[in-house]
Automatic annotation (TrEMBL):
Coiled coil: none annotated. This is ATP-dependent zinc metalloprotease. GO terms for biological process: proteolysis. Keywords: Membrane, Transmembrane, Transmembrane helix. It comes from the Eukaryota. The chain crosses the membrane at residues 152-173, 185-205. Signal peptide: none annotated. InterPro entries: Peptidase_M41-like. One of its GO terms (molecular function) is ATP binding.
Length: 372
């Protein structure tokens, strides 16, 4: 990597003092080692990347702060290091140990790079606990039915696809092209895709339709932003249905986040209300995001299935009425949270739409957050 970024301006010809030379040498020597960090990021090796950043913190920061180097040079060094620190988030997706992902977020937060991470983690203590459909409509302006995921054939997207398919078949038949012998094979393949591949092939095709893909981005950005604001480290956002299937994620896309307290309490056989509330808010944030932008939700069926599974782990297990109330409360909380941070959600959607990596998405979120 070129070192001219930290060199004096070309017009400055004064000979540097011995003290400043002693300062620049460790800095320049350390910068040469950034190739190791670049390789770690490229290989998605979180442990190696984080270990390197911590070693650079001991060497470079202490050298620049304790030195008598110019304030300009010191600022440039810190700016460079901060910009590179963000990239460690791009290595989280392949990390097997979620505790290591949590360490990466804590490292960046200690550096002052994630000021809004976890800023809303206490919001679960606010608002009424009993949320009837009437209360939900009063808080969001939407009927409860608008906040429920649609089954295939009932949503606007699936209905449009079905109408287009039937229209295409009718057109081909009117042109004398009989596809009925192949129709059984097509439907058979669709059934196999749904049963054995979780519908990933059909989802891959559907994602090519821009309106449908954007709805997915809105949904996943809702998960991501809510998890971030609630202090849950985000491992990554998977938007490719095939990759999602390979990673064991049901559905067309997925946002992987981690809640240390949730994991610890589940291992101990108990779950506190505050931790469960936070998890449910993140889980229903995709539905809330769709409702906020489109006035209704279509996706989120897998989120609901996961919610019911977690409710079954509670002691005693939630009744149907309790699950319904918890779901309405969670959607209402997430809806309002995303509404308050609408600009940050919009920034996240745009970054995901541009194919940005996780570090860029979170940086855009931070830039869109209101200044204190």
């Amino acid at each position: 990597m070129a070192l001219c970024f930290f060199s004096p301006l070309p017009l400055v010809t004064a000979k540097p003092s011995k003290v400043s030379l002693r300062v620049r040498r460790p800095i320049c020597g350390a910068l040469k080692g950034w190739q190791e960090y670049e390789e770690a990021v490229k290989e998605k090796d979180l442990a190696r990347a984080l270990r390197f950043l911590k070693s650079m913190e001991d060497i470079t920061y202490q050298s620049s702060v304790s030195s008598v180097a110019s304030s300009t040079e010191e600022s440039l060094v810190k700016l460079f290091l901060c910009e590179r620190d963000w990239e460690v988030l791009d290595t989280c997706l392949n990390a097997d140990d979620m505790r290591l992902v949590g360490s990466a977020y804590k490292f960046l937060q200690d550096r002052g790079l994630l000021p809004n991470f976890g800023k809303c983690k206490n919001i679960v203590l606010e608002g009424p606990r009993e949320v009837t459909p009437t209360v939900l409509k009063s808080a969001t302006g939407l009927e409860a039915s608008k906040l429920a995921p649609k089954k295939w054939g009932l949503s606007g997207t699936s209905s449009a696809v079905l109408v287009a398919f039937l229209g295409g078949v009718s057109f081909l038949l009117s042109q004398g092209i009989d596809i009925r012998p192949n129709l059984a094979a097509i439907l058979g393949l669709a059934w196999l895709d749904a049963v054995f591949l979780g519908g990933s092939c059909l989802a891959q095709i559907s994602c090519l339709w821009p309106p449908f893909r954007r709805r997915i981005l809105v949904h996943e950005a809702g998960h991501l932003l809510t998890a971030y604001l609630m202090g849950c480290p985000v491992r990554g956002v998977i938007l490719d249905p095939i990759v999602a299937m390979q990673m064991g994620i049901q559905g067309q896309a997925g946002t992987q986040f981690w809640d240390e307290k949730l994991e610890k309490q589940l291992e101990e056989g108990g779950l506190s209300g505050a931790v469960f509330d936070r998890y449910c808010m993140v889980l229903f944030a995709g539905i809330a995001a769709e409702a906020l932008i489109y006035g209704e939700a279509e996706g989120g069926e897998n989120d609901e299935n996961l919610f019911r599974s977690v409710c079954g782990l509670l002691q005693p297990p939630f009744s149907v009425a309790q699950m319904s109330n918890q779901a309405r409360w969670s959607v209402m909380q997430s809806y309002n949270l995303l509404k308050w941070h609408k600009n940050a959600h919009k920034a996240a959607v745009k970054a995901l739409e541009n194919g940005s990596c996780l570090s860029v998405v979170i940086k855009k979120i931070e830039e869109a957050m209101p200044s204190k």
